[in-house]
Write a structure and sequence with these properties.
43% of the residues lie in helices and 17% in strands. With 292 residues, it is an alpha/beta fold.
Amino acid sequence: MRIFLLGADGQLGHELTGALGCFAEVVPATELDFDMTDPQALRTAVRAAAPDAIVNAAAFTDVDGAERNPRQAMLVNAEAVATLGELARDERLALVHYSTDFVFDGHKGAPYTEEDAPCPLNEYGRSKLAGEAALLQQDAPAVVIRTAWLYSLRKRSFVSSIRALCRERAQVRVVADQIGSPTFCRDLAQATAMLLYGVRDAPHEAIAAARGVYHLAGAGSCSRYELACAVAELDPRREEHAVRSIVPVPSTEYPSPARRPAHAPLDCGKIRARFGIALPPWRESLARALAG
């Protein structure tokens, strides 16, 4: 099986390169290789790679930056995705694309299922939802994986930032009124590899039959404050910490250009039922991530 991997240099793409490489030939691509917002350049790159499947881990992920530059976010997160959907349909490829819990407004008060109506609060969420909609409207052979609070220690993330702050400051203040499902990049990459390994004999046909949106995130949920406390507690190098207290604060203490959903855990039952895939509890994954 040959897989064209977009966003190979990102925190998820790095993990996907290793996980997919266990059973497939991976053709990695980064933003330095071509401009994915140029439809013709994207088509040329995909056709040159001659893959059986495309995994799109490339995205405009600067949530606050999307408020300042919504057009660029839409080009990367929606229009380029539409081009990938057309290619997958016309060239008979399989496509795996990632989306986000930020398509929801966080007002439900319970974990979101795939049947819940999206209502994004910010430009990033709107651009990601537009990408989903493009694939669905095209009837593309695509599985869209909505995930949440993605982190690794390889690049800057909430978890890596909190760990660094714990080593630098006596007090760390963290918002306590945003709740979600933390997801370790390596777990998500390995789950994606399991999904594609299971359809390796006929990827286009299998993904076309399963096309649609699926939620996949770390099991359970917590607040940003609870996640920060867990980072401090589970870090195996606690002797290096300067922190004496982690203080819960409201989101209003850290105003940002983009509004965030206050409560958007994801219900991941659909992907478990269809593919037999589930991620571990978030604390278990966090401990493994911090252990290196």
